[in-house]
Amino acid sequence: MNQRPEVLLRRYHAWEHNTDKLDFQWRARLLQSLWRDEQGLTAGEYRGKIRGARLVMPEAKDTLANYLTPAIREVVRNEVEDPIRAQGKLYGRPRIYDNLLSSQPLCFNLFGELTLDLDLATEALRDMTAGRIARVVAIDFEYSPGRGDDRYTGDRSAFDVYVRYETPSRGTGFVGIEVKYHESLDDPVADHRPRYDEIAAEMDCFVPDQLHRLRERPLQQVWRDHLLVGAHQRVDEFEDAFFAFLYPEGNTACSNAVEQYGQCLSGSDSFEGWTLERLVACLATHSSAQWIRDLHHRYLDFSRLPR
Questions:
Q1: DSSP per-residue codes, 192-252
Q2: Taking Cα atoms as reference points, which of 125, 152, 146 lies closest to residue 137?
């Protein structure tokens, strides 16, 4: 790990020596703190301390300042604040409003505009999948085909982003996407369920003597979402489906997990590791929209960090 610029981090209220264990994490926290400062937003407080990557509540909820465009803010109002549409969806409050590092706001900042421009979503995701996605039909957030339903995984797992698409043969398909940014994948593992082993056997894409690794950190969450894809495809009879794990290339916890996960697979058609950098580059190839540049500026332009 590179030596941290403590004076600089403290200046932007981003010194979190015990929380940020990865080199990427303190850099991401500083980048978000810089972005907040550029926007003229006041740093929020958490557990009695001013945090540079937080916004002040309840202003953050009232203004939705965590979101990049008016269109994205409207999508958030419709998806998160509408009690009917949000029913059963596990949006983290207040972090979806005030936490600049949270991956839930990133989901909306990345895919919110695409819900209103399915042509651009199609072009970018067609590139990401070498033509596997022929046409994007719909995009949803925090989606599960059936929380707690034993036909699926029987747990509360959901996809951060859910994209339904048409295949080149005009069949139905979907991709369930898990989005990470600052996370280190060190959350406690959930209780193992026999249903997981049943789905894994049905999917027939796992190396049998590696299954024990999938039940532990840091791979269990990835595995459970991947299993949800397999169950959803079979129960609801989709022609095609896969799980995508989306993360910044500098987050070594995520890149290492993707590498380890690949070692547990005997077939990779239903799993893909995507980087944020590659997806944003695909979007920029097909559109010059300002929101794409703003997204890159906020989340990925680490060249802006003062030296």
A1: P-HHHHHHHHHHT-B-GGGHHHHTSTTTHHHHHHHHHHHHHHHHTT-SEEEEEEEE-TT-H
A2: 125
pLDDT digits (tens, 9 = 90+) for 2-55: 689 999 999 999 999 989 999 999 999 999 999 999 999 999 999 999 999 999
Which among 290, 298, 283, 296 has a CA at the least distance from the CA of 125?
Answer: 283
Q: Count the neighbouring beta carbons within 10 Å of the beta carbon of residue 171.
A: 12
Q: Which of 147, 122, 152 is nearest to 285 (CA)?
A: 122
Domain locations along the chain:
6-304
How many whole angstroms separate alpha carbon 222 and alpha carbon 229?
11
Q: How far apart are the first and last CA of the chain?
A: 16
Q: Report the 3 state secondary structure along 135-147.
A: EEEEEEEEECCCC
| Distance from C-alpha of 183 to C-alpha of 200, rounded to nearest angstrom | 26
pLDDT tier at 108 (50, 70, 90 boundaries)? Answer: very high
